[in-house]
Amino acid sequence: MASHIVGYPRMGPKRELKFALESFWDGKSSAEDLKKVAADLRSSIWKQMADAGIKHIPSNTFSYYDQVLDTTAMLGAVPPRYNWNGGEIGFDIYFSMARGNASVPAMEMTKWFDTNYHFIVPELGPDVKFSYASHKAVDEYKEAKALGVDTVPVLIGPVSYLLLSKPAKGVEKTFPLLSLLGKILPIYKEVVSELKAAGASWIQFDEPTLVMDLDSHKLQTFTDAYAELESSLSGLNVLIETYFADVPSEAYKTLTALKGVSAYGFDLVRGANTLDLIKGGFPKGKYLFAGVVDGRNIWANDLAASFGTLDSLEGIVGKDKLVVSTSCSLLHTAVDLVNETKLDKEIKSWLAFAAQKVVEVNALAKALAGHKDEAFFSSNAAALKGSDHRRATNVSTRLDAQQKNLNLPILPTTTIGSFPQTIELRRVRREYKAKKISEDEYVMAIKEEISKVVKLQEDLDIDVLVHGEPERNDMVEYFGEQLSGFAFTVNGWVQSYGSRCVKPPIIYGDVSRPKPMTVFWSSTAQSMTARPMKGMLTGPVTILNWSFVRNDQPRYETCYQIALAIKDEVEDLEKAGINVIQIDEAALREGLPLRKSEQAYYLEWAVHSFRITNCGVKDTTQIHTHMCYSNFNDIIHSIIDMDADVITIENSRSDEKLLSVFREGVKYGAGIGPGVYDIHSPRIPSTEEIADRINKMLAVLETNILWVNPDCGLKTRKYSEVKPALKNMVAAAKLLRTQLASAK
C-alpha cells in the first residue's frame, strides 16, 4: 500500500534554516555555509521519510524563501528592475526579488490561499522573456538520488502559477495572464525532460487554484496546458495535487479528464464534499492520492476514522490505485514534537507535528495493506478519546440519572451564584487581607454569611441553592490567586464601561492547581442544607479571555492548562458530595476572532477546553454553565457542543432574540434557563410579569428542560431588592406548575 507526503517544512526542527539565512543576509556567513545547512536539512528530511516507510517522497518542496519565487526563478521571470543578465539565477538576484536591495524594492508578498504562509507574487506582462534559469528541481532530485532516495519532484503547475501572478507595473490591469501559457510551457517541457533523463518516474504538479471558483475559460486553460504537455510527460506517472478546500464539481470534471495525467491528489480534511464527487465517479485505472492526514493542524489524526474513509475509497478506485497522503504540504504545521520537552504529557498525547504526521500516513498505508499496527491504533484511539473529552453518555440519559438523584420539580428554580456583598462583608475580607483579623475569625464570619444565604433561599423555597460566594472578590481573580502561573497587580486597572474598571490577572507561566480551591466552602454550605448545593467555578475560556495572557505560546495551549486545573477541582467537588457544579463561561463569545475564517478554530478549542473540565464526572453529577451578553444565535451549535447538562443565560434584555433561535428549529435537548428578570436594574418585577416571560419561553422550549432563574449573579444588588424579586420568581414558577398540572 503506497504512501505520500505533499510537502515538508523547510525551516528545520529548531529553525536551523532561519538562523542560517539571517546570518548569510547579515554577511556573517558565506553562501557555502548556507548551502551546507540547507543540504543537511534536505537529506535529514528525505532520510526521515524513507525510514518511516513513505513510498512517494517529495523533492523540490525545500525553498530558501518561497516555492512560487522558485518557480519564477525557474522560468527566468525576473522583473527588469533587478538588472539580471541571464544565466543561472544565484542568491543575489533571488534574495533581491524576495527582500529588495539597497536600490530597488522587493516583489509583492501576499497570503497563500487562506493560510498564514505568504508567497512572492510573480509580476508578469506581454514583454517578459521567459527562459530556463534555475535548475533547482532537477538538482534536488539528483541530490536525493545520490543519497539513495528516489523522490517525486514537485513543481507548481503552470496554470496555478499564472493565476497566482499579477500584471507588472506599467502593464494594463486587465492584461490576460493566462495568455502567457504558450510562453512558459516550453520551459516546463525542458524541466520535465531533464527529470526524465535523471531517472524520475513520478512528477507532481501542484494546482491548488482548482479549488477556487473558476469560470469555464480558466478551466479550459487547464485542459489546454496538459494537452500541450502530454507528449513530454509520456513515460512518467503524473500527479496533479490540489489542497485547502473542496474541488468544485466542474473543476473535478476538468481535472479527472486531463490528458497525460495518471493521479489526482485531494484534500479530504477541508474538502469533505470531494468524497461525494469521487464516489459519484472516478476515472478507471487512475491513482487517487487521498489527503486524510491534516497538514494544517497539530492534532493527532483520528486513525480509525481515516481508515474508514480509506476503506470506502478502496472499494471505488481499487487497492493498488489508492495512495495515503497528507491533506496539503506539512509546511503549515510545526516540525517535530520530539523537541517539546516541557509540554504536559496529556496534552502531548493529543498532538502530531510534521514528523509524527509522516508516521501516521505510513501507519494508515500499512493498515490498508493488512499490516495494522494494533498497538499504535489503540494508543491513538485512547489519546483521542482522551483528547475529545466528551462525557460517556448523551445529555438526555444524564438528565434522567440526575433527576432520579436530585428529584427536582418541573420548572426548577435556582440563582446564578453570587448574593449581595454587604459593606460588612467587604470589611471582613479587607481586614483579613490586611491581617487585622485572624484566619479563624475570617472563616467564622464567612460561614455565618453562608448560613444566612442558605436559610434565606430555604425560606424562599428555591430548589437548587448556592452559597452566595461571600469569600470571593472577582470571578477570575479568586481562582487566579490559587492557581500557579498567575501574577496580580495592585493598580493594573482597565476601564470596562462607564466608571467600572477591572484588574486582569497576568498569566506568565504554566498553569496548574496546587490544591483544592472551593471545596471547603462548597462542602461547608452543602452540610447546612438537605437541598442540592451548586459548586461554583469560573470556566477556562473566561479566565483566559479576562486575563493578560503570555504570548510565547498559542492561547489554546494556555487554555488547555487552565482547563486541566479546573478539571481537578470539578472532580474534587464531586468526591466531596457536590452533585451540581456550575462552570461559568461568561466570556466565551468575547474571544471570538473578528475574521470569519478564524472563528471556527477558536470555537473548536474553546468549546473543547470547557469539555475537558467535566469529562470525568459521573452521569448523576449535573454540570451547569452560565453565559452573559452572548450574541448567542451565531454560535448556538458550539454552545450545544459544550455538552453541559444545564445552561443559564443572561438574556433578559434580549429575550426575543434568544428565543428566536429555538423557534427557528435548533434542537436543544439539555436544560436551559433563560434569565426571567434583569438583575442589572433595581426594579422588582411582579409575579405576573415573570410568569408571562416563562410562558413565552414555554412556547418554544420543552417544559421538562426549562429552568427558572435570574439572568445573572446578585452581587451588586441590595437585599431589599433581591428578597422580593426572588419571592416573586418562585411564586411565578409555582403558579405555572399548578397551571401545567391542571392542563394535563
Automatic annotation (TrEMBL):
Alphabetical UniProt keywords: Amino-acid biosynthesis, Metal-binding, Methionine biosynthesis, Methyltransferase, Transferase, Zinc
Binding annotation for L-methionine: 416-418, 469, 584
Pathway named in the protein's UniProt entry: Amino-acid biosynthesis; L-methionine biosynthesis via de novo pathway; L-methionine from L-homocysteine (MetE route): step 1/1
Role of this protein: Catalyzes the transfer of a methyl group from 5-methyltetrahydrofolate to homocysteine resulting in methionine formation.
EC number: 2.1.1.14
InterPro entries in UniProt: Cbl-indep_Met_Synth_N, Cobalamin-indep_Met_synthase, Met_Synth_C/arc, UROD/MetE-like_sf
Source species of the chain: Carya illinoinensis
Chain residues that bind 5-methyltetrahydropteroyltri-L-glutamate: 18, 116, 500-501, 546
Entry protein name: 5-methyltetrahydropteroyltriglutamate--homocysteine S-methyltransferase
GO MF annotation list: 5-methyltetrahydropteroyltriglutamate-homocysteine S-methyltransferase activity; zinc ion binding
Binding positions for Zn(2+) per the UniProt entry: 626, 628, 637, 641, 650, 712
Family: Belongs to the vitamin-B12 independent methionine synthase family.
Annotated GO biological process: methionine biosynthetic process; methylation
Residues annotated as catalytic: 680
Entry-linked PANTHER family: 5-METHYLTETRAHYDROPTEROYLTRIGLUTAMATE--HOMOCYSTEINE METHYLTRANSFERASE
Domain Cobalamin-independent methionine synthase MetE C-terminal/archaeal: 411-734
